[in-house]
Input
Amino acid sequence: MPSRKSSSHADSGSPSAGEPVYLAIGHLRRPHGVRGEIVMEVHTDFPERIKPGMKVFVGESHDAMVVDGARFHNEGLIIKFRGVETPEDAGRYRNLWVYVASADRPPLPEGQYYFHELIGLQVVDDRDELLGELTEIVETGANNVYVVTRADGSEILLPAIPSVILDVEMGRRLMRVHLLDGLLDSPN
Output
């Protein structure tokens, strides 16, 4: 079943066409303490990989920085960057995103995909009839929901469960699904 992650391009060392160069792993909030640390809201499934010596990219300009320290905190992580020594220094990074290079993402088990790899897939039903394009993934807590946009602009909402998502062929950029009874009855 598709998930938030995949290993299909992890061995290539560079992003494929349409794949982002950077992946967001966190959002910097506010300075913490007096040593230049800052609270980071975590936006990755792998926060344990954020360790001293790790190269990250901060802000829309993707300024390269090196993690000097990171520890878990009730609000996410307390992170320290090399060369950032005071609360005032840390405050310059408030409300900025932290990224890693997509080529550095961790490999995943076969059959699992990063969200960005799934967006843009053509979606067909189990009779190979085109339903539309996967345009959004909604995280609901129970299971993800895939939003498929049809040619007329209407949307189909598909629960990301094994009985609905039958197959993903990344080479063909195709997802095959089984529509549950009544799934297309609601107007959108």
About this structure: The two ends are 26 Å apart (CA to CA). The longest helix spans residues 87-91.
